[in-house]
């Protein structure tokens, strides 16, 4: 009886975490490193558009913002990081002209300006 119980328990454990890598992955999801929030915020604050497409830049910022959900940054900081990280373009010009009150509004303005600029160009 005890042997059957031990074998059954061993089989259940094997199905929960078939490999060591999967166990480590599950543990890291549940118990992130202590400085994870600091790392995400630092990366967010340093993010710039550079050579990335505007949509890729916005997606990267949104991903980093989602990573700070436990301790979110103030909206003013989020907006400033987005605006300052934009490269010189029609989107940046329009965002600074409009004076958006939220980062999502600024994103919408920038995306619309970039789309309008591309649509207006011949060819």
What is the strand and helix layout of this fold?
Elements: H1 2-16, H2 20-30, H3 36-46, H4 54-67, H5 75-85, H6 90-98, H7 103-120
Helix pairs in contact: 3-4, 5-7, 6-7
Describe the structure.
The chain is an all-alpha fold and 123 residues long. The protein folds into 2 domains: 1-31; 36-120, no CATH class. It has helices at residues 2-16, 20-30, 36-46, 54-67, 75-85, 90-98, 103-120. Helix 3 (36-46) packs antiparallel against helix 4. It is elongated. The termini are far apart. The model has no long low-confidence stretch (mean pLDDT 86).
What's the quick description here?
The protein is an all-alpha fold and 123 residues long. It folds into two domains: 1-31; 36-120, no CATH class. The chain has seven helices and no strands.
């Amino acid at each position: 009886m005890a042997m059957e119980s031990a074998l059954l328990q061993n089989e259940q454990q094997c199905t929960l975490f078939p490999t060591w890598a999967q166990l480590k992955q599950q543990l890291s999801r549940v118990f992130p490193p202590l400085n994870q929030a600091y790392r995400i915020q630092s990366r967010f604050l340093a993010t710039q558009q550079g050579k990335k497409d505007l949509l890729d830049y916005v997606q990267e910022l949104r991903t980093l913002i989602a990573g700070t959900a436990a301790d979110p940054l103030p909206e003013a900081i989020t907006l400033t990081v987005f605006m300052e990280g934009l490269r010189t373009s029609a989107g940046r010009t329009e965002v600074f002209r409009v004076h958006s009150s939220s980062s999502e509004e600024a994103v919408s303005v920038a995306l619309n300006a970039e789309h309008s600029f591309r649509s207006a160009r011949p060819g």
